[in-house]
Amino acid sequence: MYKALYRKWRPQTLDDVISQPHITSTLRNQVCSGKTAHAYLFTGSRGTGKTTCARILAKAMNCPDAKEGAPCLSCEICRDADKGTLSDIIEIDAASNNSVEDIRDLREGTVYMPERCSCKVYIIDEVHMLSPSAWGALLKVMEEPPAYVKFILATTEIHKVPATIISRCQRYDFRRIRTEDIAKRLSFIAQQEQLSLAEDAARLIAKISDGGMRDAISLLDQCAAVSEEITAAVVSESAGVAGRGALFEILEAIADGQAADALRVTGDLYSRSKDMTRLCEELTDQLRNVMLLKLGGNQGDLLSCMPDETERLGALARKLPMETILSHLAAMQDCRERMQRNPGKRVELEMTLIALAMPKPKPVQVVQAVQQVQAAPQAKVSVQQEQTAAPQTQGRTEASPNAKKLRPEDFRPVENWMDILEEYRTVNPAVSGSLAESAAFVNGNVMLIVTKNRFFLTLLKNRENAQSLGDTVKRMLGREYKILGKCSESDQKENLAQNVIQKAINSNIETAVE
Predict the structure, then answer these.
(1) May I ask the CATH architecture of the domain 250-357?
(2) How confident is the model at residue 149 (pLDDT cuts 50, 70, 90)?
(3) Could you count the other beta carbons within 10 Å of the beta carbon of residue 491?
């Protein structure tokens, strides 16, 4: 019967465990010296060797012929332990045995001496899934166990393990396995299994597995069923990821402001049953590489890309400013979060790509309108009225909008304006709807909102709307702003910003709010 590769090539000794020397050397020394702890806690992401090391450690502590801290693998105890028939090594899956009754059964079993081994070892996998009452039952027996009882706990979510349990264990944190180590191990397994694995395919599998050896070997097994010649194209097809060229086509289309080209490539990937969530994650990873290259210096060790992709990534880094790259990264991460809540994953991704490709409005004309507002004597009246209505703000030392002359080059866009609108949508959907195609710019404590929807200016006259918008901006940006509104549609006959302010003053309505 065929045996899955990840089971066939599971490490049998601590020497076979890769990328965890800080753990394997310590465990080996403890076994050699006979000073093993009564409780261990292994934590780390999936596929990094937690359960494997637990099984090896349990065998090493009980193997009568252990040498240099390694089990012999040939005695009856080692063979029975590998088969799962050794009664003195008990492996418990806490995901399905998480009740207090299960832990009570465990406690009752600890009173019996081991039958064949020197110690009885309990391996509790996914221990974070125990119920609160089960934690209480486990705590007592772990605090003062019999001398012949050992516990090895394994978890991927250490934050769910009570501090009282952690304090009674020796904790070992398993690192993500390095891409180079995974690729080297995959090449060795492929050679032993007589598989043709290209070097770039091994690196791609290692990158997709995200530090998990089990995921990498499982993907290798899947690729071997597709083709005898395992290439990078075969890996992409088997894993359901986008081809590397398609990722660059999308990113380059966004950088050039060609939203239609980005959607065309996305639609082609969708028609080939590519997962949109995975595509979003891959675009995020490549944008991260662009960010690291933009920083300059020696960032090669931090890049998660193929060697031949560096040149195209560098071209993107030279084309995009750092503020734009960070804004794109934040937008893609927000898109990934929305995908978890929305079944229309393709629509979410397409909306994000269009938003990234759209040219950002330039604030020069807007700032000119603000300068006219600052120069107008009516602005002083507005500030005085506001101080009268809200005396608690009189002690503030920030300058009012007309305190200094603002230059166009001093205004900068609010990069996370879309995040602010998303938050404001939950507070005031009516006003946020009028800001669908808007942008915000700040200088000091002045924020100017430019929108194509003139109705926003009407809604902003309402004190409650203005107050709710000001509170949201303060909550998201961490400071208060004087908020001004302007319609981006120009009028050749008169200055619309000045006209709106004049009408507001004539109606005794404030034109600046906090």
Answers:
(1) Up-down Bundle (1.20)
(2) very high
(3) 10
